Amino acid sequence: MDAQIHPEVLEERPPEFIASWFHSGKSFVEQNGWFFVGAGLLFYCLWIKVQPYIKKFREQQEERRYAAFCHKNPDLVRTRQEAMETARQRLQTEHDERAKLHAEKMKQVCNNSCM
User: Fold this and answer.
1) Hey, what long-range contacts does 56-61 have (CB within 8 A, 24 or more apart)?
2) How distant, in Å, are the alpha carbons of 18, 37, 76 from that of 29?
3) What is the full DSSP assignment across 39-105?
4) pLDDT tens digits, 11-43
């Protein structure tokens, strides 16, 4: 009587509706797989052609947003520009000092090697 309640080998099977969906999806891909490949290639080619236009459009949008921001906050823009100018001047003076030191070192090397 125990043999009738429990089978000798237990099998774990997925629910029937999941198995049927899986098999119908698998058969659909098997029958139409080349269409998916072709559609993917077509989409990729179109994406390559359209991508520069999308990038240009996004850059224009960003420029418009920044222009609107600058129009609303002219004092903030002015302080940013002044800070950038002072940073540029500082970097330029550092570069000039390094160039002078390098020129002096080259002059010394030339004097030592010429003797």
Assistant:
1) none
2) 16, 11, 58
3) HHHHHHHHHHHHHHHHHHHHHHHHHHHHHHHHHH-HHHHHHHHHHHHHHHHHHHHHHHHHHHHHHHH
4) 777 778 788 888 888 998 889 889 989 999 999
pLDDT per residue as tens digits for the range 58-83 = 999 999 998 898 888 888 888 989 99
CA–CA distance from 112 to each of 99, 109, 115 (Å)?
Answer: 20, 5, 6
Q: In terms of pTM, does the model score above 0.85?
A: no
59 vs 10: CA distance, rounded Å: 62
Report the pLDDT averaged over residues 101-108. Answer: 92
What's the rounded Cα separation, in Å, for the pair 67 and 70?
5
- Report residue 34 as tokens: 């080349």
B/e letters for 22-45, b = 16+ CB within 10 Å, e = fewer, are eeeeeeeeeeeeeeeeeeeeeeee
8 A C-beta contact, residue 19 and residue 13: yes
